[in-house]
Amino acid sequence: xxxxxxxxxxxxxxxxxxxxxxxGEPAPADAxxxxxxxxxxxxxxxxxxxxxxxxxxGVDAGLIAESVNAMTSAETLKYLPSMLVRxxxxxxxxxxxxxxxxxxxxxxxxxxxxxxxxxxxxLGNSYSYPPRWGMVSxxxxxxxxxxxxxxxxxxxxxxxxxxxxxxxxxxxxLEGHLNAQGSVQDYAIYGTDERYxxxxxxxxxxxxxxxxxxxxxxDRLDAQGQPMSYATAALSRTSIDPEAxxxxxxxxxxxxxxxxxxxxVFGAYxxxxxxxxxxxxKLAYDLTPTLRAAYRSGLWQNDSETGAQSYLRDAAxxxxxxxxxxxxxxLYTVRGLSPGxxxxxxxxxxxxxxxxxxxxxxxxxxxxxxxxxxxxxxxTTANAGADSGLGTRRPSGRITDMSGTGWQSLDGxxxxxxxxxxxxxxxxxxxYHFDRYELASVAYATDDWLTGGRGDVQSASEGKTETHAVxxxxxxxxxxxWTLVLGLRPEYWRAFDGVNATSTASQPYAxxxxxxxxxxxxxxxxxxxxxxxRGSIGQAYRFPTVTELFQKISGTxxxxxxxxxxxxEQVLASEFxxxxxxxxxxxxxxxxxxxxxxxxxxxxxxxxxxxxxSVQNVEEIQLYGIETVxxxxxxxxxxLDVRASVTYTHSRIKENTRNPETEGNWQPRISxxxxxxxxxxxxxxxxxxxxxxxxxxxxxxxxxxxxTHRSFGDSSEYVFLDAKLSxxxxxxWTFSAGADNLTDYAAYVYHPWPGRTFFANVKYAF
Length: 766
Prior knowledge:
Blueprint: H1 2-22, E1 56-60, H2 61-67, E2 84-85, E3 97-98, E4 111-114, E5 117-118, E6 141-147, E7 163-168, E8 175-189, E9 192-209, E10 212-224, E11 229-234, E12 253-256, E13 262-288, E14 291-310, E15 323-327, E16 330-334, E17 340-355, E18 361-380, E19 397-401, E20 406-417, E21 426-446, E22 457-477, E23 482-501, E24 506-508, E25 512-528, E26 531-542, H3 546-550, E27 553-554, E28 558-561, E29 569-582, E30 585-605, E31 611-632, E32 640-655, E33 673-684, E34 687-696, E35 718-727, E36 733-740, E37 748-749, E38 751-752, E39 757-765
Parallel strand pairs: 4-7, 28-31
Antiparallel strand pairs: 1-6, 2-3, 4-5, 6-7, 8-9, 8-39, 9-10, 10-13, 11-13, 12-13, 13-14, 14-17, 15-16, 17-18, 18-19, 18-20, 19-21, 20-21, 21-22, 22-23, 23-24, 23-25, 25-26, 26-29, 27-28, 29-30, 30-31, 31-32, 32-33, 33-34, 34-35, 35-36, 36-39, 37-38
């Protein structure tokens, strides 16, 4: 892929030089840089806070509809600069956000909000704790904005990677929407050659009646994913015991693992069929012309079944799933080819009160609650086939119940403008934040993994964390061209009521607390009406999550070890950005740097079985890079818009006393190069053609940097080509068809990325 890297290296130069080639006349003085974005049909302005001392990017509903094959809200971030959502298949519940400074399993390193309500799941920091995308349907999204880096005192240390702000639509009249989508993926890797279909239906009704408005929507996603994992084993030299030979089987595939070592592949598992229902209700009322109260509730329900497919066949031609086998006269042990099932019912409630006077004072109060009302998963602990049974009796298993887990948050925010209007010499933002996260996870034995009742408690993990924070941030306009933003965020964090227990023992943990202070400073200079220079420095603390501290998990293939003494992760970040408003567009280039001390990283010991995984503090990781973004409307011909971004990141582990051999290695899951190019051509109001390219370069999946071979288990580079055709015959109907990964490029984020997938969509609105 050296040629691909060279292409994107040159693309970086092109995106830097193009602005001078197309700049023409300077942008008018009233073309504020922070508001210049290339918009699509039904454009809306960015919704980021005032006086934000950081780089931003955004997309609106019109642009999403024209360019993205989105069946979930996570997909709407697909073409934002330096952003990646690890949605491995449609409906993936482990869709982690990755940014230019955080990797694809660093779920607590970035934040996602919807209408000011927290969707990020900071119960943990792994693939198991992604944002709760299911609480927002793609149909109700008005726009998505991203803030890069921890430079604003308004946000906690989880903003080190970035903050995604999802804004949903408010009706102005009676309106309704019906939406039907379908997709199909042909997938062929190893012995799996299948077609996987997904379907998405949504309906909504909304209206404004005087001072009040409501939005009611229902959404169902029925999705089938490709295999997520494969049962493998290194080539064996163990001879068969002639006195007790295991069954001889055939059908295994031979390939190389991520380190280049030879291995056998026995079958596929984690083949997920998920049915997700989402109900959303929003109610808003204007108490006065400048004071608005709003309530939002969401229900997300999921039923999931994960299947397994064995490639192995015994002498009678029957599939073999788990246990000892003989292959070409050598002994192997097959593990992991077992099914699973889960059922979830989660609720979100949010209440807000906001003033919008644009006078001396404005304020906002937001309270939210997220509750795992029901959350049960079932898995096998003995040999099981894809049909979920062995003969007439199903095997034993484990039931894991996380009901009662959840979080609450409260935010009070205010702003004071010294001259009584936006643009005052001093605009002072201040506020208070509170959150509490509660873990309740119990694993039970059961004699029938699929329908059996709860037996003895095998393990139980409980605990709480909470944070109190206040912040103060002043945007001080030193003169018409210079603005200094100073911020301070003191935080008090504590962890308490932590305990791990089994049926025979209990391990309580002592309470802990920590007080931190995070300063921020940013200086910007309006070089000209269409040029802005900005330098920002910010410190941030990411506190250990409740599961990192207290949750211990024993599984059939891996064990997770907790650590109640973890230190908070400390980030010192800086950015220098140049922004230039172009006729109908924007060019931005940012130099960024982060120093992470006591970085919280999960490390796995694969030399033992089950694999032992633990979270550890890595003393120091340093990262720097450059990101350039270009947005142009009507490029060369009227109706042709282009959005492009290129990011280069250099990341190294500087100190890791627990694993010194990793010092000097790359930070896991951070690729060297990332790029996106999205072109949209609108020959008329009725048609839109979109072609997109997504690229991610070399990266490693572990601290040891041993995975260098593109195969299952590797975090590989990828080049995905996407397309979409949209037809808008009138104001009521929309028809679209598209495809993701048109070239069927095989790539991995440890698990396989989707293959070529085709989409079709019909919408009706009134």
